[in-house]
Protein backbone atom coordinates (compact mmCIF):
# COMPACT_ATOMS: atom_id res chain seq x y z
CA UNK A 1 0.00 0.00 0.00
CA UNK A 2 2.87 2.40 0.73
CA UNK A 3 4.22 1.92 -2.79
CA UNK A 4 0.85 2.82 -4.29
CA UNK A 5 0.61 5.81 -1.95
CA UNK A 6 3.87 7.21 -3.32
CA UNK A 7 2.52 6.84 -6.84
CA UNK A 8 -0.80 8.51 -6.02
CA UNK A 9 0.95 11.52 -4.51
CA UNK A 10 3.10 11.86 -7.62
CA UNK A 11 0.20 11.36 -10.04
CA UNK A 12 -1.80 14.11 -8.34
CA UNK A 13 1.12 16.52 -8.48
CA UNK A 14 1.42 16.75 -4.70
CA UNK A 15 4.82 15.10 -4.37
CA UNK A 16 7.66 15.98 -6.66
CA UNK A 17 10.99 14.16 -6.63
CA UNK A 18 11.50 15.11 -2.98
CA UNK A 19 8.14 14.48 -1.27
CA UNK A 20 7.61 11.49 1.03
CA UNK A 21 4.98 9.51 2.93
CA UNK A 22 5.38 7.20 5.92
CA UNK A 23 3.20 4.61 7.62
CA UNK A 24 3.53 3.27 11.13
CA UNK A 25 4.27 -0.46 11.32
CA UNK A 26 0.87 -2.09 12.03
CA UNK A 27 2.66 -4.90 13.88
CA UNK A 28 4.98 -2.71 15.93
CA UNK A 29 3.97 0.84 16.78
CA UNK A 30 7.57 1.69 17.67
CA UNK A 31 8.70 1.57 14.04
CA UNK A 32 7.57 3.05 10.74
CA UNK A 33 8.16 2.55 7.03
CA UNK A 34 9.42 5.18 4.60
CA UNK A 35 10.87 4.84 1.14
CA UNK A 36 14.58 5.27 0.53
CA UNK A 37 15.85 8.53 -0.85
CA UNK A 38 14.33 8.46 -4.32
CA UNK A 39 11.48 10.06 -6.22
CA UNK A 40 8.06 8.75 -5.09
CA UNK A 41 7.15 7.83 -8.67
CA UNK A 42 10.05 5.37 -8.78
CA UNK A 43 9.27 3.46 -5.58
CA UNK A 44 8.39 0.00 -6.85
CA UNK A 45 9.53 -2.84 -4.57
CA UNK A 46 10.01 -3.93 -0.97
CA UNK A 47 13.74 -3.16 -1.26
CA UNK A 48 12.80 0.50 -1.76
CA UNK A 49 11.24 0.68 1.72
CA UNK A 50 13.23 1.25 4.93
CA UNK A 51 12.02 0.57 8.47
CA UNK A 52 12.91 3.21 11.07
CA UNK A 53 12.66 3.61 14.83
CA UNK A 54 9.95 6.09 15.86
CA UNK A 55 12.04 7.04 18.90
CA UNK A 56 14.92 8.63 17.00
CA UNK A 57 14.51 8.20 13.24
CA UNK A 58 17.35 5.70 12.94
CA UNK A 59 17.14 2.73 10.58
CA UNK A 60 16.70 -0.77 12.00
CA UNK A 61 19.13 -2.00 9.35
CA UNK A 62 22.56 -0.37 9.61
CA UNK A 63 23.18 -1.37 6.00
CA UNK A 64 19.98 0.15 4.64
CA UNK A 65 20.06 2.37 1.59
CA UNK A 66 20.37 6.11 2.08
CA UNK A 67 17.19 7.56 3.53
CA UNK A 68 15.53 10.95 3.42
CA UNK A 69 17.31 13.64 5.43
CA UNK A 70 13.88 14.79 6.60
CA UNK A 71 12.77 11.44 8.01
CA UNK A 72 12.67 13.23 11.39
CA UNK A 73 9.46 14.93 10.28
CA UNK A 74 7.94 11.46 10.36
CA UNK A 75 9.63 10.04 13.45
CA UNK A 76 8.93 13.04 15.66
CA UNK A 77 5.33 13.42 14.50
CA UNK A 78 4.61 9.72 15.03
CA UNK A 79 6.31 9.90 18.42
CA UNK A 80 4.33 12.95 19.50
CA UNK A 81 0.96 11.52 18.40
CA UNK A 82 0.49 7.80 19.09
CA UNK A 83 -2.90 7.77 17.33
CA UNK A 84 -1.35 9.04 14.08
CA UNK A 85 -0.17 6.35 11.66
CA UNK A 86 0.58 8.22 8.43
CA UNK A 87 2.58 11.39 7.76
CA UNK A 88 3.06 13.18 4.43
CA UNK A 89 5.54 15.93 3.62
CA UNK A 90 5.75 17.59 0.20
CA UNK A 91 6.43 20.87 -1.57
CA UNK A 92 3.30 21.73 -3.55
CA UNK A 93 3.79 24.96 -5.47
CA UNK A 94 0.11 25.79 -5.01
CA UNK A 95 0.54 25.77 -1.22
CA UNK A 96 3.98 27.31 -0.69
CA UNK A 97 2.80 30.89 -1.45
CA UNK A 98 0.42 30.69 1.52
CA UNK A 99 3.42 30.06 3.76
CA UNK A 100 5.05 33.29 2.57
CA UNK A 101 2.38 36.00 2.65
CA UNK A 102 1.63 37.15 6.17
CA UNK A 103 -1.77 38.74 5.57
CA UNK A 104 -3.30 35.95 3.45
CA UNK A 105 -4.07 32.74 5.32
CA UNK A 106 -4.85 29.37 3.80
CA UNK A 107 -8.63 29.00 4.33
CA UNK A 108 -11.16 26.29 3.45
CA UNK A 109 -12.63 27.71 0.25
CA UNK A 110 -14.87 24.78 -0.65
CA UNK A 111 -16.45 21.75 0.96
CA UNK A 112 -13.78 19.15 0.29
CA UNK A 113 -11.28 21.13 2.38
CA UNK A 114 -13.25 21.69 5.58
CA UNK A 115 -10.62 19.59 7.36
CA UNK A 116 -8.27 22.59 7.24
CA UNK A 117 -10.26 23.93 10.15
CA UNK A 118 -10.33 27.41 11.66
CA UNK A 119 -6.60 28.06 11.24
CA UNK A 120 -3.66 26.46 9.44
CA UNK A 121 -0.41 26.86 11.41
CA UNK A 122 2.71 28.01 9.58
CA UNK A 123 6.00 26.57 10.83
CA UNK A 124 8.90 29.00 10.43
CA UNK A 125 12.11 27.00 10.83
CA UNK A 126 14.20 30.15 11.24
CA UNK A 127 12.93 30.44 14.81
CA UNK A 128 14.47 27.08 15.72
CA UNK A 129 17.91 27.00 14.13
CA UNK A 130 20.90 27.02 16.46
CA UNK A 131 24.45 27.97 15.54
CA UNK A 132 25.33 24.42 14.51
CA UNK A 133 22.43 24.01 12.07
CA UNK A 134 22.86 24.74 8.37
CA UNK A 135 20.15 27.22 7.47
CA UNK A 136 18.97 25.09 4.56
CA UNK A 137 15.24 24.92 5.46
CA UNK A 138 15.48 21.15 6.06
CA UNK A 139 13.93 19.45 9.09
CA UNK A 140 16.89 17.11 9.31
CA UNK A 141 17.27 16.31 13.01
CA UNK A 142 15.17 15.30 15.99
CA UNK A 143 15.07 18.78 17.51
CA UNK A 144 13.66 20.40 14.37
CA UNK A 145 11.29 17.49 13.81
CA UNK A 146 9.88 17.89 17.34
CA UNK A 147 9.48 21.64 16.79
CA UNK A 148 7.48 21.02 13.63
CA UNK A 149 5.34 18.32 15.29
CA UNK A 150 4.39 20.78 18.03
CA UNK A 151 2.61 22.94 15.45
CA UNK A 152 -0.10 20.29 15.13
CA UNK A 153 -1.32 21.33 18.58
CA UNK A 154 -2.70 24.67 19.75
CA UNK A 155 -0.70 26.70 22.29
CA UNK A 156 -3.11 25.61 25.03
CA UNK A 157 -2.71 21.88 24.43
CA UNK A 158 0.94 22.28 23.51
CA UNK A 159 1.63 23.18 27.12
CA UNK A 160 0.13 19.87 28.24
CA UNK A 161 1.92 17.81 25.58
CA UNK A 162 -1.36 16.61 24.10
CA UNK A 163 -1.03 13.22 22.40
CA UNK A 164 -3.70 14.03 19.81
CA UNK A 165 -3.26 16.67 17.08
CA UNK A 166 -5.53 19.72 17.07
CA UNK A 167 -4.67 20.52 13.46
CA UNK A 168 -4.59 18.25 10.43
CA UNK A 169 -2.31 20.38 8.29
CA UNK A 170 0.77 22.55 8.83
CA UNK A 171 2.39 24.86 6.28
CA UNK A 172 6.17 25.26 6.36
CA UNK A 173 7.45 28.71 5.47
CA UNK A 174 9.28 28.75 2.16
CA UNK A 175 9.28 24.96 2.03
CA UNK A 176 5.99 23.08 1.76
CA UNK A 177 3.60 21.33 4.13
CA UNK A 178 3.12 18.35 6.42
CA UNK A 179 -0.15 16.54 7.04
CA UNK A 180 -1.14 13.44 9.00
CA UNK A 181 -3.89 11.02 9.90
CA UNK A 182 -4.72 7.54 11.13
CA UNK A 183 -4.34 5.92 7.70
CA UNK A 184 -2.86 6.40 4.26
CA UNK A 185 -6.17 7.02 2.50
CA UNK A 186 -7.18 9.92 4.74
CA UNK A 187 -3.74 11.53 4.83
CA UNK A 188 -3.55 11.45 1.02
CA UNK A 189 -7.06 12.88 0.76
CA UNK A 190 -5.89 15.81 2.86
CA UNK A 191 -2.73 16.37 0.86
CA UNK A 192 -4.53 16.27 -2.49
CA UNK A 193 -7.48 18.45 -1.49
CA UNK A 194 -5.39 20.97 0.44
CA UNK A 195 -3.51 21.54 -2.80
CA UNK A 196 -6.77 21.73 -4.75
CA UNK A 197 -8.18 24.18 -2.21
CA UNK A 198 -5.08 26.38 -2.53
CA UNK A 199 -5.64 26.56 -6.28
CA UNK A 200 -9.32 27.45 -5.80
CA UNK A 201 -8.52 30.07 -3.16
CA UNK A 202 -5.83 31.66 -5.31
CA UNK A 203 -8.22 31.88 -8.25
CA UNK A 204 -10.90 33.43 -6.05
CA UNK A 205 -8.47 36.01 -4.68
CA UNK A 206 -7.39 36.84 -8.23
CA UNK A 207 -11.02 37.47 -9.16
CA UNK A 208 -11.45 39.92 -6.28
CA UNK A 209 -8.40 41.83 -7.48
CA UNK A 210 -9.40 41.91 -11.12
CA UNK A 211 -12.00 44.65 -10.78
CA UNK A 212 -14.44 42.24 -12.37
CA UNK A 213 -17.66 40.61 -11.28
CA UNK A 214 -16.89 39.79 -7.64
CA UNK A 215 -16.31 42.50 -5.05
CA UNK A 216 -15.99 42.44 -1.28
CA UNK A 217 -13.50 39.63 -0.89
CA UNK A 218 -13.76 35.87 -0.81
CA UNK A 219 -16.43 34.17 1.28
CA UNK A 220 -14.78 31.14 2.88
CA UNK A 221 -16.52 28.35 4.77
CA UNK A 222 -18.07 29.50 8.04
CA UNK A 223 -16.89 28.04 11.35
CA UNK A 224 -19.84 25.63 11.41
CA UNK A 225 -19.31 24.70 7.77
CA UNK A 226 -15.66 23.92 8.48
CA UNK A 227 -16.59 21.57 11.31
CA UNK A 228 -19.39 19.80 9.48
CA UNK A 229 -17.52 19.59 6.17
CA UNK A 230 -14.48 18.30 8.03
CA UNK A 231 -16.61 15.53 9.50
CA UNK A 232 -17.86 14.68 6.02
CA UNK A 233 -14.29 14.80 4.65
CA UNK A 234 -13.17 12.29 7.29
CA UNK A 235 -16.04 9.93 6.53
CA UNK A 236 -15.56 10.03 2.75
CA UNK A 237 -11.76 10.21 2.56
CA UNK A 238 -11.46 6.61 1.39
CA UNK A 239 -13.66 7.11 -1.66
CA UNK A 240 -11.03 8.57 -4.04
CA UNK A 241 -8.32 6.08 -3.04
CA UNK A 242 -9.21 3.15 -5.37
CA UNK A 243 -9.84 5.59 -8.21
CA UNK A 244 -6.42 7.19 -7.77
CA UNK A 245 -4.72 3.80 -7.47
CA UNK A 246 -6.31 2.59 -10.72
CA UNK A 247 -5.14 5.76 -12.46
CA UNK A 248 -1.55 5.06 -11.46
CA UNK A 249 -1.81 1.40 -12.40
CA UNK A 250 -2.86 2.43 -15.91
CA UNK A 251 0.25 4.60 -16.22
CA UNK A 252 3.45 2.76 -17.28
CA UNK A 253 5.59 5.12 -15.21
CA UNK A 254 4.47 3.47 -11.98
CA UNK A 255 5.62 -0.06 -11.08
CA UNK A 256 4.47 -2.05 -8.06
CA UNK A 257 6.06 -5.46 -7.62
CA UNK A 258 3.86 -6.17 -4.58
CA UNK A 259 0.65 -5.96 -6.60
CA UNK A 260 -2.44 -3.78 -6.39
CA UNK A 261 -3.69 -2.70 -2.95
CA UNK A 262 -7.28 -2.38 -4.21
Automatic annotation (TrEMBL):
Molecular function, one GO term: metal ion binding
Domain of life of the source: Eukaryota
Keyword Nucleotide-binding: no
Domain (Class II aldolase/adducin N-terminal): residue spans on this chain: 2-202
Cellular component aspect of the GO annotation: cytosol
SUPFAM superfamilies: AraD/HMP-PK domain-like
InterPro entries from the UniProt entry: Aldolase_class_II_sugar_metab (IPR050197), Aldolase_II/adducin_N (IPR001303), Aldolase_II/adducin_N_sf (IPR036409)
Record-level GO BP terms: pentose catabolic process
Keywords, comma-separated and alphabetical: Lyase, Metal-binding
Protein name: Class II aldolase/adducin N-terminal domain-containing protein
